[in-house]
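Objective 1b: paired records.
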Amino acid sequence: MTGEKKKKKVKTIKIDIDKCNGCRACEVICSAFHSTPKYASNNPARSRIRIHFDPLRDIYLPVYAGEYTAAECMGRDKYTINGKEYDECDFCRASCPSRTLFKEPDSGLPLKCDMCEDDPELKEPMCVQWCLNDALTYEEHEEEVEEELKMEDVELGLKSMVDQYGWQKVIDTVARMAKRAEAPKSS
């Protein structure tokens, strides 16, 4: 099923690997921002941004967490950029079965960068604000996308509701909502 075209705000963090000095301030503030309660603890293993670093080869590569993937990728290529060699996994933002990066250390649940969504909304994610060398910059732009309704998503949502509330409660709620939708609207 395809839907209508809508404008979507796309938020990204642009990374300049030549400016990163590996200070890890981004990891520290991210983990503190996402702790409960906020700023109560600091554990970079919980950070949604991580620095791949190899000080002997002068490699400092910030990568922020992307989508979870259940499958392990087959890419094991190496890339040389400005005389520095990187593994393909160094650039990957996914939380995947082949590594512990971007997983909650206690539960193993995948982590994903949320651009520090908060109330009130922040101007920039905390890692960008705390980057001392401007290696991280925040960018926003709008894209026109065609929203696609996937039945698997609807079924997954319904299954979750049924698991939590039971079939009968979900059926009763849908019936009540359907009646309201059919009822004439008074002005």
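Objective 1b, second protein:
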Amino acid sequence: MSTVMNAPQIDETSNEVNKPWSAKATLGLTLLLFILYFVISIISLVIAAGVELVGSGVNSENAEAFGASIAQNLALDGDFNAINYLFTALCISPVIFHLAKKRKVTTASAYLGFDKLPSKANFINFNLAILGYFIFSYFVSNALAIETPQSMIDIYNTTDYLFLLFIAVVIAAPIFEELVFRGFIFKGLENSPLGVIGAIFITSTLFTLIHLGQYDFTILAILFPLAVIIGLSRYRSGGIYLPIYLHFINNLYSAVHMYLFMH
């Protein structure tokens, strides 16, 4: 009798596993991923500050104040930020693949969009779109007299190993961030009642907001259209390769612009 009573529950659970994560579950798990990212970053900062404090030979009376000063400097240090980002991304990426694998609707790679390459037409069209965005952002930035954020200048000035910052910003960031936004989040939202429009809008908004600590609201407003273009490329291409490529091109453009600005 109990076996018969439990059969519908088993079928229901099985059906849920064979579907993408719901919108609520996707956003909830994304919040946990953000918290995990923050926790790992803080732990890395504390460890790095502790190592530097021990090596400084400061006495115990001044250790707390000096340690706080070290941590503050590290938070704006280009080399530490690059290493911390790479380490955190390497820690969280397997978690994302594990969450995707939990849904039996497809493979983890396909769930995250690694199963489809963009068509030639999509590749050309979105290259034109990103070029149009660069022109738009250039003229808007000049018209509004937007200056390079001081935080970015500080990070660049405190970088001894420029290649490390380049790897983190130009290579790792596009892969990891697209894995989160146009990979995991997009899949769950696209297959929910929110649909494609909701998926593009929400992922674009979240993508813009994670840069809140780096840029002011004017720059964020210019960044949002880029996020929408990348979201559209995810939908039109059916995969994550084109979003990663567009993100890479944007970060490469920004890195070159920053280098020329500082020299």
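Residues 53 and 67 are 6 Å apart (CA to CA). Residues 1-5 have pLDDT under 50 and may be disordered.
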